[in-house]
Amino acid sequence: GKTYEHLLVSSPKPGVGLVQLNRPKALNALCTPLILELNAALRNYQADKSIGAIVLTGSERAFAAGADIKEMKDLTFSTAYGNDFIENWSELVTFLKKPLIVAVNGYALGGGCELAMMGDIIYAGPKAVFGQPEIKLGTIPGGGGSQRLTRAIGKSRAMEIILTGDNISAKQAGEWGLAAKVFDTPEATVDAALSTAEKIASYSQIAVKACKEVVNKSQELGIRDGVDFERRIFHGLFGSKDQTVGMTAFADKKKPEWMNE
Ligand code: CAA
């Protein structure tokens, strides 16, 4: 496959793409070249018909310690605003229609926490540390943290975390629902993410895409419009071949052979 300076990319299980952030000397700080590579790698997986789900992880010590502070230090307002600084960070939430499972070990701080929250499912290792420490640098979250953390854990908790810069432990992340699950070892965390991705990749890719789309709509729409949207997509899937494949296989007590159509 393609090689990158700041990423390791592989496909360890059928239908599963794995992207590992690999900038160890800076604890995977998210410099612009890393983000550009990450977008390129995820776009490749989005276009690759053999891939059904993607796992994003870092190292045992750090998922990502945030935006690259050394790169940001001398930015001015006009350069940041004029060049849409970090606008490219959230590209993945629009172009990536395949599920992204984020396996977090070690630090997921600032932009690292924000990147994790752009994923669809977070699995946390025992020493995962989440937080938005921007207040300690004299600034605020800039990659969506104030919005996504608040939706994930509620206003009072998010306000406390963002205003104090205090960290969220793995245990707390699990209890608060920021992480879907917490695991005993870093390896178990990545393995579980890969297994979940493999399971997702084994289903109809049409239905998987629709699942992600409707759940994400819940973050944008009120309940009435959200349920209406879900119903439209649900009805629409009666036009897919895989609806017939899946329901016929159930009735015949057979394993469905998805057509992804
Ligand atoms: N940017 C650039 N470099 C970073 C970095 C970052 N966010 N985080 C760590 N590094 C670098 C360190 O400078 C250090 O490099 P050198 O060896 O060249 O000195 C190397 O990574 C190792 O880090 P430490 O020596 O600090 O490791 P530690 O174990 O003592 O501490 C840490 C780990 C608590 C995560 C600490 O590195 C830290 O506090 N990092 C910054 C965390 C942070 O503030 N993140 C938010 C950034 S702002 C942001 O993300 C804005 C946004 O919302 C978009």
Automatic annotation (TrEMBL):
The pathway to which it is assigned is:
Mycotoxin biosynthesis
Concerning InterPro entries, the annotation shows: ClpP/crotonase-like_dom_sf (IPR029045), Enoyl-CoA_hydra/iso (IPR001753), Enoyl-CoA_hydra_C (IPR014748)
Q: Which UniProt keywords apply?
A: Lyase, Virulence
Pfam families, per this entry? Answer: ECH_1 (PF00378)
Q: What is this protein called?
A: Enoyl-CoA hydratase, mitochondrial
